[in-house]
Amino acid sequence: MKNFVMIGTAGYIAPRHLKAIKDTGNNLVAAMDKFDSVGIIDSYFPNTHFFTEFERFDRFVDKTIRSGTKIDYTSVCTPNYLHDSHIRFGLRHKSDVICEKPLVLNPWNIDALKEMEKEYGSKVWNIFQLRLHPAIIALKEKVKNAPKDKIFEFDLTYITSRGNWYYTSWKGDVMKSGGIATNIGVHFYDMLSWIFGDVKGNIVHVHTHDRAAGLLEFEKAKVRWFLSINENTLPEEAKAAGKRTFRSMNIEGEEIEFSDGFTDLHTKSYENIIAGNGFGLDEAYPSIRIVHDIRHAKPIGLVGDYHPFAKKELAAHPFGK
């Protein structure tokens, strides 16, 4: 049995990590979040020590280690801009770290973490659950078996409606979340680079508070992509069905069905990591570079080969920014 501690237990994604720790037969020694809406812990680890102040959590973890109990893993589920600091916390306590995406906001943060891995002898692991999805694995195999000179045409569309709360939260602050491409798109960019190879070009057509669209050119594909949190960008059929999300991946006119099969991917990720087969810092580079470059690119507008949804009417910021 491995001993875990968790930072960010009140967050949206934390229950998946709690379930993964439980399902893999391990123990959560301590958890921390500045918010105390963490009753979900009772469903998994009712005896976990919980803290709302980082300093007290730090002291408890240090005392636990000095008393002879090893902390094997630190799970990080905090807001994006805090990942780097909380990963460092885990490494300094000589535990491996399992971190939600995006691992960090900038490529050079990864370089610093690699130095810390060497210094403390621990590893940092990414949650890249799409790499474990059967439909995505099948797509990777299809691309691998295609003629070497084949360049695939690929369209990615992901719309996940968010209300006005989004802009008040840390997610609406580019400095904290990295913006839309980072916050809701980074796992797709990881998937794309994993399947199609190195990035050859990265063009941004539209990038506003509620959407982003562009063209990514990989070794084996040209990918038109569109991401949005605005429900008005949903296709009419999705609106008519009362849906608030729309997800589509289309390769050469063929739709890839990947709506199902997500239930246990965090648990599978944990199983692989504990077995030493997870995705480390080097695997994070391509997607973090992509979102960094998108964040700093100047949108060129509706020029060239752009995603059809990029033409949708732009919306004003709900708070007038």
Describe this structure in words.
- Strand 1, helix 1 and strand 2 form a beta-alpha-beta unit.
- Strands 3-2-1-4-5-6 form a six-stranded parallel β-sheet, with helices on both faces. Strands 8-9-10-7-11-12 form a six-stranded mixed β-sheet, covered by helices on one side.
- 36% of the residues lie in helices and 21% in strands.
- The chain has two domains: 124 residues, Rossmann fold (3-Layer(aba) Sandwich); 162 residues, Dihydrodipicolinate Reductase, domain 2, CATH 3.30.360.
- The chain is of the alpha/beta class and 321 residues long.
- Helix 8 crosses helix 11.
Task: Please tag this protein with its features.
321 residues; alpha/beta; Rossmann fold; Dihydrodipicolinate Reductase, domain 2; 2 domains; 6-stranded parallel sheet; 6-stranded mixed sheet
CATH architecture annotation name of the largest domain: 2-Layer Sandwich
Multimeric state of these chains? single chain
| CATH level-four homologous superfamily name of the largest domain | Dihydrodipicolinate Reductase, domain 2
Q: Average pLDDT across residues?
A: 96
- The radius of gyration is 20 Å
Strand order of the largest sheet: 3-2-1-4-5-6
Tell me the name of the CATH class of the largest domain.
Alpha Beta
Shape: globular
CATH topology of the largest domain: Dihydrodipicolinate Reductase, domain 2
The major pleated sheet works out as: 6 strands, parallel
Number of strands: 12
Structural class by sheet pairing and helices: alpha/beta
Termini, distance in Å? 50 Å
- Count of the domains: 2
Strand fraction:
15-25%
The string of secondary-structure elements, in order, is EHEEHEHEHEHEHHHEEEHEEHH
- Tell me the number of helical segments per DSSP (H or I, 4 or more residues long): 11
pLDDT < 50 runs, ≥5 residues: none
Binned, the helix content reads: 25-40%
